[in-house]
Amino acid sequence: MEIEKYQIAEYNDPVLNAHQKAFAYIASTVPNAEAIIEKLRAFQVAIPSWALGTGGTRFARFAGGGEPRNLEEKIMDIGLLHALNRSSGAISLHIPWDIPSNPANIRALAAQYGLSFDAMNSNTFQDQPGQPLSYKYGSLQHTDSATRQQAIDHNIEVINYGIELGSTSLTVWLADGSCFPGQLNFRKAFQNTLSGLQEIYKALPENWKMFVEYKAFEPNFYSTTVGDWGQSLLYANKLGEKAYTLVDLGHHLPNANIEQIVSLLLMEGKLGGFHFNDSKYGDDDLTVGSIKPYQLFLIFNELIDGMDARGMEHTTDLGWMIDASHNVKDPLEDLLQSVEAIMLAYAQALLVDRRQLAEAQKLNDVVRAQEILQQAYRTDVRPLVAEARLRDGGALMPLCIFRSSEVRKNLIRERGSVSVATGL
Amino acid sequence: MEIEKYQIAEYNDPVLNAHQKAFAYIASTVPNAEAIIEKLRAFQVAIPSWALGTGGTRFARFAGGGEPRNLEEKIMDIGLLHALNRSSGAISLHIPWDIPSNPANIRALAAQYGLSFDAMNSNTFQDQPGQPLSYKYGSLQHTDSATRQQAIDHNIEVINYGIELGSTSLTVWLADGSCFPGQLNFRKAFQNTLSGLQEIYKALPENWKMFVEYKAFEPNFYSTTVGDWGQSLLYANKLGEKAYTLVDLGHHLPNANIEQIVSLLLMEGKLGGFHFNDSKYGDDDLTVGSIKPYQLFLIFNELIDGMDARGMEHTTDLGWMIDASHNVKDPLEDLLQSVEAIMLAYAQALLVDRRQLAEAQKLNDVVRAQEILQQAYRTDVRPLVAEARLRDGGALMPLCIFRSSEVRKNLIRERGSVSVATGL
Amino acid sequence: MEIEKYQIAEYNDPVLNAHQKAFAYIASTVPNAEAIIEKLRAFQVAIPSWALGTGGTRFARFAGGGEPRNLEEKIMDIGLLHALNRSSGAISLHIPWDIPSNPANIRALAAQYGLSFDAMNSNTFQDQPGQPLSYKYGSLQHTDSATRQQAIDHNIEVINYGIELGSTSLTVWLADGSCFPGQLNFRKAFQNTLSGLQEIYKALPENWKMFVEYKAFEPNFYSTTVGDWGQSLLYANKLGEKAYTLVDLGHHLPNANIEQIVSLLLMEGKLGGFHFNDSKYGDDDLTVGSIKPYQLFLIFNELIDGMDARGMEHTTDLGWMIDASHNVKDPLEDLLQSVEAIMLAYAQALLVDRRQLAEAQKLNDVVRAQEILQQAYRTDVRPLVAEARLRDGGALMPLCIFRSSEVRKNLIRERGSVSVATGL
Amino acid sequence: MEIEKYQIAEYNDPVLNAHQKAFAYIASTVPNAEAIIEKLRAFQVAIPSWALGTGGTRFARFAGGGEPRNLEEKIMDIGLLHALNRSSGAISLHIPWDIPSNPANIRALAAQYGLSFDAMNSNTFQDQPGQPLSYKYGSLQHTDSATRQQAIDHNIEVINYGIELGSTSLTVWLADGSCFPGQLNFRKAFQNTLSGLQEIYKALPENWKMFVEYKAFEPNFYSTTVGDWGQSLLYANKLGEKAYTLVDLGHHLPNANIEQIVSLLLMEGKLGGFHFNDSKYGDDDLTVGSIKPYQLFLIFNELIDGMDARGMEHTTDLGWMIDASHNVKDPLEDLLQSVEAIMLAYAQALLVDRRQLAEAQKLNDVVRAQEILQQAYRTDVRPLVAEARLRDGGALMPLCIFRSSEVRKNLIRERGSVSVATGL
After folding, report:
1. Which residues does C69 contact at the CB level (< 8 Å), separation at least 6?
2. What is the pTM of this model?
3. According to the model, what pLDDT value does residue A54 have?
4. What's the N-to-C CA distance of chain A in angstroms?
5. Would you say D177 and D171 are in contact if contact means Cβ atoms under 8 Å apart?
6. Which of A244, A353, C97, D364 is deepest in the core (most CB within 10 A)?
7. Average pLDDT rounded to a whole number, residues A70-93
8. C163-187: b or e for each residue (b if 16 or more CB lie within 10 Å)?
């Protein structure tokens, strides 16, 4: 199932006038519409390979149909998304769920859809069939050195797959931790994990980065061995300059001020990547922007401010990825909603008058500082984001095309109604 | 310090063209602009008398200047706000901080500014000078019946003041509870409190309502005796048809789904009033809409849906009040920001296409339901709210006028730089 | 695998002297040792059939060996626990995981081990093979009446199984709720759920109870349709006198005061049952007493106080059940630890001097009230609990026997190392 | 008001027999009673000077009587506590609440009671009368360099007072932060704060330590500038080897695993001090051990394990201090309860069989690891703590003597019933 450029143009046609009117209006009211559009066009969010199928809750998975049955079909799905929104031009793979049997072919297929390979993800939180040693009691933290070595070897294998595909980063997320007080010696678990990460770090090619992802808790846990940004930063600093912290929005204790964490990590030069999703209670992996869109805006506000202060490139100097689960929505529709929410927050943050904000901050003019942020946030920037898509041949209304052209129906026809995406 | 209508018109003049352009644009894109404007014009939020001065944190109060020194000046301040935004046409008094020595005069003064008297608030969480019995261990929950009676008598006194001023409701917020396990017999505390509320209920005039406010916790507490909506509803049901639950946004445990609470209370016919503010961690009493504006929208979405389903009048059938604290902002500026945020959320909620939403819900079309809500929320409704103000002689940009006309400077000149609002 | 009484006696023998010394000491220091022991002996906690196998986290299940392969083996496992601790004399079944093909035989088998059948549990949170309609969008709350009817019918079927087994209560836990704002009309979801519960209620035999379990959130949720005790109580009150609220320790928002909830539900005559477990972050289903043992004590303190005040029988007038998950422990060992923690908390709560506590509360003597609770909690009541077991033929040290007699090794030999308990 | 040694002995007399029996029992059941007693005797907890009077909630302070009116009386009060429990042999002063007009005399007075001077505390969270510049918008983070300098100067002044009194550490707790998004540039606030701390650090004498205290939130806040252990550690590492992190139990987000934080800070050699209290919801500053005693034990378990691993002295290599507020209890009674709870948790942690625990951890024997911790925690160690007091001439039952000898009544007679402790 593909959607051709001409088809998109056909779908855009009837709504083009309304869009042009809306765009003209917004362009006349904001000072920097063209500059924002250029930044929006350049901005790309990676889609994780595991987000293309229906996810599950603790108890059940209510599968939809037409899920991609292999890596090739996953790439096609992301190609479809990218054709529609022109902002999903990267894929983040997970090993062993997505082992490329023929990397060169896979790379060529992705290139065909304009997709590059973002961070590679390893998996030491599940036991694979035939795996000699179990991760029941952790992987890199394990008290048994052979189990640790197995986890190290796996990560190096993931790097090697990544090299073949043209990826340049490895995300290490560990489900290591404990369920009960007393189970772990926290310091030994940290030291074991650090040693393991150091071994993996040694295997990184020169131009690669390692992202150390943290997470406050999992259901049924008492502690996690990379639990918060402070711990992740400790690891990253001890590892070296290629190691960075990765922030996932859902991996915090209740009420955490994530935008401040982002700002401080940028200050330290140690923010490496970002996982977008949204949450109401825990790590809910809901559609980006569906619960706390203002928080998302505030985070982008800090990202832009902090990256600009260091002369970082928005597009390349951080890894941007969605990490969500889709249990009651069509996964592709959910991803379209998520990317849209990200682009809107990015556009709003680009609207913030930073000179005036700095001045208000200097004068402790709290009311004005709030007004400046809200002025940007309350602006309806949807026409800017749509215009950016349009200029790149994308859809004005991606979700509408997705539905009108009956993508899911076609996918089910092609792949069947009971396909299950690998890894789910 | 007053701002005359002609002055407001003069301030509006230079921005009128821009507003008209913006309003024309939004009016052309939403289906029901005029209907929304009429609802916005009718909607009034009460300002609590204690919100007009600088608040404090646990440790310090960093006072601003020009605070109202008495009830008359508080009314003038609210009159000023109302002149600017035309949406602050009510005042909520607190006894004993605002005892009207001459109620008839006070009532006439308020009427001059177009203000009515919203819910009266009693105070049994502080000991007043000369008060015979202490509330150290609670008021209506107290194990000593004489202390309970003193608290009952005080509430009846508050009702009597309210009658003279033309108020028709009493808000009972208790700081009753305990600091340590074992301190209270929970059931006896509940029964004592219920008995006290029943005595107060008996003193309510026919057309009055009693609002039972709940709160999950206070600093230094272990339990509160009206702790959540479930407890408040128990009291309200046992009291009778004039008793209702009052919801304050900041009075919940972390992550509570307040919009669902609101919906269920409306279903039960027992939602009576609302206290607006915003929070990051606890009961922070921050400016409305400054932290979680989407939550505010979702709450309004439920309020409108639930009130319409019962045929309730938005303007009169619930008590709407701000309850915030202003520690680092000019209180009047903060209130202007708060009212603006409320009006925007109300306007956005009025934009929701309820017929389509019901249809999407019926079909379990989760993606579309989300799109419908976001379509309304992402719309820039500021011109609608400004237009509503304009039609009532208010300011297009209330905060700008407040600053340009140097209101605070004038208030400081009139009242001094070290005035302290009564009750703070 | 069974352990005979004479074997238990043999295991007890070498530690009997030490126990007698310890028991003599504690018996000489508390005023009511014999009365407590009698209550401990009468107290029985039901084991849920799904807790006998290894549970899983979101990502993986690291199975142990020797898990019960059918209902008969589950009963044997609980029989073994009960033989050791004499406090696990009941089983709580889950349909369809434990459908008894021959109820009379099952009942006889359970009787052989001294086990009765506690609350029956229905399942409308998973789709079973061949099930006509899906619960993807909820069960009793569903917008489609046929799906609701299917869920009603299933619950009635569960009641019928229960009747055959001699159970007298049904626990209804629903995973109904929503993942996103807008997905549900909260009021309609409530009304649909209520209607469904009413249909099920009608099918209850005269002497049965229905327990309406609430839960604040699940991973990936935005709302739950029976979300807190307030909602559960609304349902229970509307249903009738056979309907009660069931409290699960892990089903609350952060920091909730569960002991107060318990107290108020008892005050209203609507507390029906209890699910024991422990948690650090969310609904972690950890071993009872492993994280917050003082909270467990405070809850028992309220249970005893509230039940005594209503003349309720501790042993029969509430349903007591463990609801935990065992991911890194041997499930049977975990259950032994859980039951021990429950018995200790119960014993400590029985030690509280209620006359003195009431007096301290009356006088607002907060320090003394705390001392009274801590005096009970700090007492080492393990010898009392061990003595209660001993008098009933149980083990002084159940966990030691379990290990020394190599129960797990034997179970693996009997059942294999890759057995998977039904339902997991 | 003082209690002489002979009086304490007289009070001990009637309960001595019972104690000896209890002590003999526990001494016969634990392997290392004498070693534990020696450690308990050496362990001293500092009492903060502000904890000797009645605290307040957000709304009211319900004062008790007989509060110390000056520094001399505060020292006497702590002397009294120390005479009773022999474990409160240090005082932690707060400037400007406790400026010693004659340091030599104050030092001599303290010595008379066997008290040393623990960490000095500065105050830049309140404006003092006559202070030139306000801390309304922060102190060390302030955008105005003169305000920052004022805060620096104040801290240096505090060091100087401390030198004269024989203290060797400075605790810096800042209420710096922001109330609203946009108010602060997080990175500039961090850099300003760091610069200020660096200036203060320069003024530290050779043998001094600086403790950088963190806190997640205050009521009415949106961010804090030293918000968590990660931030505090960043500051401490940038400052140098005399700078350490200080952990206050109440200063965390909900559900934080504080024992893990403690362990990692010890691993990094950067844990400097500890503030004891307890909490149910936020920073409640309740009596130590009154809400989560098992958490307190787990923290001590990590402290001992981590300190022993580094060869640190329990008694001297960390600063131990109570930081609580007393609103409904007699402050001195509350402090006696707090110190008792600390000593019990310390004793229980000393009971943990570390060799066996390490072995269980090595083998991933989670059940056994939990048993080992619970074995220690469930032991009634009160006779050990009492014995330690007894051997140092303290009271077997400090609270009983306090009440029997009518200390508070005497203090009220001496100081009046309306005295207010300085700083409250």
Report:
1. C415, C419, C420, C421, C422
2. 0.98
3. 86
4. 22
5. no
6. A244
7. 97
8. bebebbbbbbbbbbbbbbbbbbbbb
Going from N- to C-terminal start, the domains of chain C cover 5-415
CATH topology of domain A5-415: TIM Barrel (3.20.20)
What pLDDT does residue C293 have?
A: 98
Residues A104 and A15: their CA atoms lie apart, in Å, by 40
Residue D404 pLDDT > 90: yes
Phi, psi of A246 (to 5 degrees): -115, 130
DSSP letters of D47-115? EEGGGGS----SS-----S----SHHHHHHHHHHHHHHHS---EEE-BTTTT--SSHHHHHHHHHHTT-
Q: How far is D334 from chain B (nearest CA, A)?
A: 11
Under 8 Å CB pairs connecting chains A and D tally to: 139
Sorting pLDDT into bands at 50, 70 and 90, what band is A56?
A: confident
Chain A interface with C: residues with Cβ < 8 Å: 55, 57-60, 62, 125-127, 134-137, 175, 179-181, 183, 216-222, 254, 280-287, 290-291, 325, 327-329
Q: Do C361 and B217 touch (CB under 8 A)?
A: no
CA distance to partner chain B, nearest, from residue A12 (Å): 18
CB proximity list for D345: less than 8 A, separation 6 or greater: D289, D293, D296, D297, D299, D300
With an 8 Å Cβ cutoff, are B283 and D217 in contact?
Answer: no
Which chains have at least 3 CB atom pairs separated by less than 8 Å from chain C? A, B, D
Closest-CA residue in chain C for D382? C378
C51 closest CA partner among C98, C4, C86, C84: C98
pLDDT of residue A242: 98
Amino acid residing at C156 = I
**b/e for B183-216, b at 16 or more Cβ within 10 A?**
bbbbbbbbebbbebbebbbebbeeebbbbbbbbb
The answer, yes or no, to whether residue C204 has pLDDT greater than 70, is yes
Neighbours of chain D (3+ CB pairs under 8 A): A, B, C
The Cα C41–Cα A157 span in angstroms is 58
User: H or E stretch including B322?
Assistant: strand B319-322
Torsion angle, alpha carbons of B344, B282, D228, D247, to 10: 170
Q: What is the pLDDT of residues B228-274, one digit of tens each?
A: 999 999 999 999 999 999 999 999 999 999 999 999 999 999 999 99
Residue in the block written with tokens 């301030």: B11
**Type and span of the H or E element at C172:** strand C169-172
Q: How far is CA B218 from CA B176, B178, D185, in A?
A: 10, 10, 30
Q: What SS3 state is found at B177?
A: strand
What is the per-residue pLDDT across A226-269, written as a single tens digit (0 to 9) for each?
999 999 999 999 999 999 999 999 999 999 999 999 999 999 99
pLDDT tier at B175 (50, 70, 90 boundaries)?
A: very high
- Statement: residue A66 has pLDDT above 70: yes
The rounded distance, in Å, linking the Cα atoms of C363 and B2 is 54
Write down the ipTM of this complex. 0.97
Predicted local distance difference test score (pLDDT) of residue D64: 82
CB B321, CB B335: distance < 8 Å: no
Determine the pLDDT at residue B58.
66
Query: What would the pLDDT profile of B34-85 be if each residue is shown by its tens digit?
Result: 999 999 999 999 999 999 988 876 677 888 889 999 999 999 999 999 999 9
pLDDT for res D280 = 97
Contact call for C59 and A126, based on CB within 8 A: yes
CB-based contact A278:A290 (threshold 8 Å): yes
Sort strands D223-224 and D177-178 into parallel, antiparallel or unpaired.
antiparallel
CA gap C294, C284 in Å, rounded: 18
pLDDT tens digits for range C27-40: 999 999 999 999 99
